[in-house]
Please model this.
Amino acid sequence: MKALLALVVASLLGGCSMFRAQAPAAPVAPKPAPAAGLVDANGVPIERVPYRIGVSSVTVEQLARQHACVGQGAGLITEPGPVEVYRLQCSDGKVFMARCELRQCRKM
Model:
């Protein structure tokens, strides 16, 4: 009976991970160096948003011209929906942004 009890206890303890030796941790790979690009004041890389056309892109370009901003295409920076935000890079370096709600656009 004692042998059976010892066998059960040994099998239970043998399967428990608490009593096993831990394998050495794998070496941690170094962080990749940021791509040669723009970074903010804290050194965090600035994410580039891909250009996407939206249903109000032309309207935003016309609105930008009314505010003395001439640029090449207003890009949608939010998901398409009832409220959208557009961004247009002006030729003088400024950025024109507009918020369109149900295709009614206003300068931000």
